[in-house]
Specification:
transmembrane helix; MetI-like fold; 13 helices; BP-dependent_transpt_permease
Length: 306
């Protein structure tokens, strides 16, 4: 009887509940999608390689990029001079390696500077509207009415061309100015869309101040397009810098610059083609890599854009 009673009163024990799977964050999804894109991975690998070359240029370059050697002018590529020498006897490989530092410094710095200026302008114009929006956007329209290269040239001719650090600073500022409207218009459009969401209206109804709403709820939702635009803009900035140097209003010699080396050696394209091909190829592969990585990053952040 006891066994029957105990068996009849037995209660089935339910199996333990499984822990719910963690939801994947947006950045984890982006990283996973990015790894599936061979072109984006290739672009990222090349970009990282170029950044490392720029950082360790003093170690990688076999010679000084500004040292003249009258006894070794127009040397063909060899074991001693891997990419040959120019009309002044300067080692081209050393100039290409150190030129990567100049191009990447200007490209990355100008984009960061343009973001720091353009994003606040776009936020103010989109969030507050009215006279702020009209004034800021009309100023951006004036800048956009000029071709990028032409406006950069106008800005550069206002200053005395110099070499070295200050030459790089001037070119960085000129390139940043012509890129500011890109971020101002981009962020303004995003803010206009986001500020109409219900959770933004709820935050304001609860008494949250505008700076807090902007920093905690609006700006984080603008990061993805800013990152994509910034990555793609580095390629454009490098082209603008090379164009300014090619035209003689950018970084001045003897500071190594791909654009200046291309200009200085294009006259010898038939006798010594490697002198012009090397800086030209450096510009090409750098711009291509940033574009491939930027396109892959855009698709990874928003697969609907494919």
């Amino acid at each position: 009887m006891k066994s029957l009673f105990s068996s009849s009163m037995a209660v089935a024990v339910a199996p333990p509940l499984e822990k719910p799977a963690r939801s994947e964050t947006m950045w984890a999804q982006t990283s996973r999608r990015l790894r599936k894109s061979n072109t984006a991975v290739f672009g990222l690998v090349v970009v990282v390689f170029l950044v490392l070359v720029a950082i360790f240029a003093d170690v990688i370059a076999p010679y000084s990029p500004t040292a003249n050697n009258p006894n070794a002018t127009f040397e063909a590529p060899s074991a001693k001079y891997l990419l040959g020498t120019d009309q002044l006897g300067r080692d081209m490989m050393s100039r290409i390696v150190h030129g990567s530092r100049v191009s990447l410094t200007i490209g990355l710095s100008s984009v960061v500077l343009a973001i720091f200026v353009g994003v606040p302008l776009g936020v103010i114009a989109g969030f507050y509207g009215g006279k702020f929006d009209t004034l800021i956007m009309r100023a951006m329209d004036v800048i956009l009415s000029f071709p990028v290269i032409l406006l950069a040239i106008i800005i550069m001719v206002m200053f005395t061309p110099t070499d070295g650090f200050w030459g790089i600073v001037k070119v960085t500022g000129a390139v940043a100015i012509v890129r500011v409207p890109i971020y101002a218009r981009l962020v303004r459009g995003s803010v206009l869309s986001i500020k109409e969401k219900e959770y933004i209206e709820a935050c304001r109804a609860l008494g949250q101040r505008d700076p807090l709403v902007l920093l905690r709820h609006i700006l984080p939702n603008c990061l993805a397009p800013i990152i994509v635009a910034g990555t793609l803009s580095v390629a454009t900035a490098i082209i603008v810098e090379a164009s300014l140097s090619f035209l003689g209003v950018g970084v001045q010699p003897p500071t190594p610059s791909w654009g200046w080396d291309l200009k200085a050696n294009v006259a010898w394209i038939q006798e010594s083609p490697w002198l012009a091909l090397c800086p030209g190829f450096a510009i090409f592969i750098t711009v291509l890599s940033f574009n491939l990585f930027g396109d892959g990053l855009r698709d990874a952040l928003d697969p609907r854009l494919k």
